[in-house]
Amino acid sequence: MSVPSAYWTAIVDNDSAYDDKFFYGVRTTGVFCRPSCKSRVPKKENIRIFKDGRLAQAAKYRPCKRCNPDRQ
Ligand SMILES: [Zn+2]
């Protein structure tokens, strides 16, 4: 699935307005984050979008230690 451009912009801008609207997993690291996470922005082609943190964990992604996307 390609990354919607609004989501990509939210990731690049660390836009917290999108937190809890979606999460993104990074294929190369196996970690998932909130849009507002301050970690380095991954390559767009390595991003996988999830609507829910549980779905990311079900897909074997680990929650990021910086943005704690598994906490409500
Ligand atoms: Zn993160």
Helices and strands, with pairings:
Blueprint: H1 5-12, E1 23-26, E2 31-33, E3 47-50, H2 53-58, E4 62-63
Parallel strand pairs: 2-4
Antiparallel strand pairs: 1-2, 1-3
Bound molecules: zinc ion.
Zinc ion binds at residues 33, 37, 39, 64, 66-67.
Structural notes for this entry:
The mean pLDDT is 96. With 72 residues, this protein is of the alpha+beta class. Helix content is 19%, strand content 18%. The protein has a four-stranded mixed beta sheet with strand order 3-1-2-4. The protein is globular and about 25 Å long. The protein has one domain: DNA Methylphosphotriester Repair Domain. It contains two helices and four strands; from the N terminus they run αβββαβ.
What are the salient characteristics of this protein?
single chain; 72 residues; alpha+beta; DNA Methylphosphotriester Repair Domain; four-stranded mixed β-sheet; 2 helices; 4 strands; 19% helix; binds zinc ion; activator; Ada-like_dom_sf; methyltransferase activity; Ada DNA repair metal-binding domain-containing protein; zinc ion binding
The gist of it:
The chain has helices at 5-12, 53-58; strands at 23-26, 31-33, 47-50, 62-63. It is of the alpha+beta class and 72 residues long.
Report the CATH architecture: 3-Layer(aba) Sandwich
Radius of gyration from CA coordinates: 10 Å
How many DSSP E strands? Answer: 4
Q: What gap, in angstroms, lies between the N and C termini?
A: 26 Å
Strand content: 15-25%
Domains, number: 1
Whole-number mean pLDDT: 96
CATH class: Alpha Beta
Protein structure class: alpha+beta
Q: What is bound: which ligands? A: zinc ion
- The SSE order reads HEEEHE
User: The CATH topology, please?
Assistant: DNA Methylphosphotriester Repair Domain
